[in-house]
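Tutorial sheet, problem 5. The two components below are modelled jointly, 450 residues in total.
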Amino acid sequence: MPKPNLNPRAHPLTPDQAKRTLAQRLGTLGDNLRQLATNFGVRPYRCFLVWTHWGGAERGEGMEREVKRIEVLPTPRVTSLDNLSFSFFHAGTLPVGSVRVDRISVVRFSYDILTGKMVPTPHEDHIPEPYDFFWEIIEDGRGDNPALRSKFRVMSYPVRRAGKLDWTLMLERVSEDNNRYGQSQIGPDFPGPLPGLPSSVKGP
Amino acid sequence: MPTITGKIRDLLFGRPFGELFPPKANPPPLAVDGRTVALETLAAYIATLDFFRPGDTGGPPTKFRIPESNFHIEWPDYVEEMVFPSIAVVHSRASYDVIGLVSYVEESTRDVYAPGTVLQWQAEYVETINLEVWTSKKAERRSLLAGLETAFSPTEQMSGLRFRMPNYFNELVCFTLLRREVMDEPDSPKNRRRAQLEMQMRFNIVSLVNYTTMKPQVQVTVDFDQLGIAVDLSVDKNAQQVPPIP
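Model answer (structure tokens):
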């Protein structure tokens, strides 16, 4: 058993007090400074939180429709994209690997938002059927435009680094990417590949 | 069927199939093996099938197909990304079952594929293959399995699936479903669902060889005795003179 706390200065913060701490108040300043990084062009990867709804009883049944999309702003830092690779399988290659995303605003985002537990109602225990949630990372258009869209899942617990005024988390690559126009590729047959684009990109 | 000539012909024990006089080269072997032709035929069949995924609540099911380009007989090259849904053939070691103890030619194929040739059966090729189904969602995988299970016994007359192979001398290939496995693993929740349908594939390995028709000849000699010694009938006293016909 620890000794009883006799120091009146040692106490936890109430939620209201925590929101008014110096670190939390500096969050907005941190966001402004991060926007400078975006303006300088050193944040090329835009990150989106995407919620979709399937028309049937469970995920994969019926049409997939996007119900909510939130861009993570200011644009966070995405590192370790070089850890992504293409692994061989019997029917072709699949992207595998994970990335780290940090410098995520502590002012705009919470754990529940970053892990998708906000749809259909805030603070869900888990994302219910037939809702789906994923992260999407897209280059900002300085190269290919429209750029490929890469789908990720939350791989690690998001951690609030109060001293660094940010959230950080790991994302893992999943399938199946939306096409370059943001449309789900799971659904009825599309006419086929668009001219000049990879075969994995089907037309609207 | 290769044409064996030269010194190695002298070393070969037995008479090569299709060896004729005057010498004539056998037709060259096909550029594509029977297994590939058989599985291409299967891919073409599956590409014509309609599969149905559950649709929106209260709505009709959603139809989809698997194009031939999504059917992989062998591992695709590194430049090809996987597209869902796809089917890949997971191979195993095949066996060549001997057909009888002597060679056999299919006489109905005489002069069908080239003048002076006939098909020779060499062995029965038997391979247990797995059709690996790749989908992104569970519902799609169920739909594919439901469609494939019924598609492998489409005829009234018999169980299994049989095709003629025009690109392989019209030989018959037979696919028989054996087992299936839904393969859930740590990668599955990442929208990478797969299942396997195990089946047996059988067809005859054949070869086009030269032939020539048999031409029986009978030679009768009358001026040799039973010991094979030549006799001169003009001086043989025992030989009876046949009176000339008046």
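Marking note: The radius of gyration of chain A is 20 Å. Full credit if you identified this.
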